[in-house]
């Protein structure tokens, strides 16, 4: 178990994920997360609008880092159409 006092909130998910991936280098994971963070900030351009942030997140994670996406979600974000409208 991970003691909640030993883990900062922004480190909890990566720490828990490593339990499922024995032998994974934590430093390499941290490097990728840092690269995503830097790129996301650049793509978002300081926007605070939720749809802009979602589009920036999709761009950074999907297009630049190769994460798999839900095509319907990506289309809604690209068109800035609320999911309830489809």
Structure overview:
The protein is mainly α. It contains 4 helices and no strands. The longest helix has 19 residues. It is globular. The C terminus is likely disordered.
Short recap of the structure:
With 86 residues, the chain is mainly α. It contains 4 helices and no strands.
Task: Indicate the topology.
Elements: H1 9-19, H2 26-44, H3 50-64, H4 71-79
Helix pairs in contact: 2-3
Identify the overall geometry: globular
Q: Please report the total strand number as a whole number.
A: 0
Q: Give the low-pLDDT segments.
A: 81-86
Largest sheet: none
SSE string, helix = H, strand = E? HHHH
Keywords:
4 helices; 86 residues; mainly alpha
């Amino acid at each position: 178990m991970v003691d909640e006092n030993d883990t900062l909130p922004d480190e909890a998910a990566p720490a828990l994920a490593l339990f499922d991936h024995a032998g994974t280098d934590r430093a390499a994971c941290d490097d990728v997360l840092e690269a995503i963070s830097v790129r996301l900030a650049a793509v978002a351009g300081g926007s605070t609008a939720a749809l802009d942030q979602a589009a920036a997140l999709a761009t950074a994670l999907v297009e630049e880092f190769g994460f798999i996406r839900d095509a319907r979600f990506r289309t809604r974000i690209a068109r800035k159409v609320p999911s309830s409208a489809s």
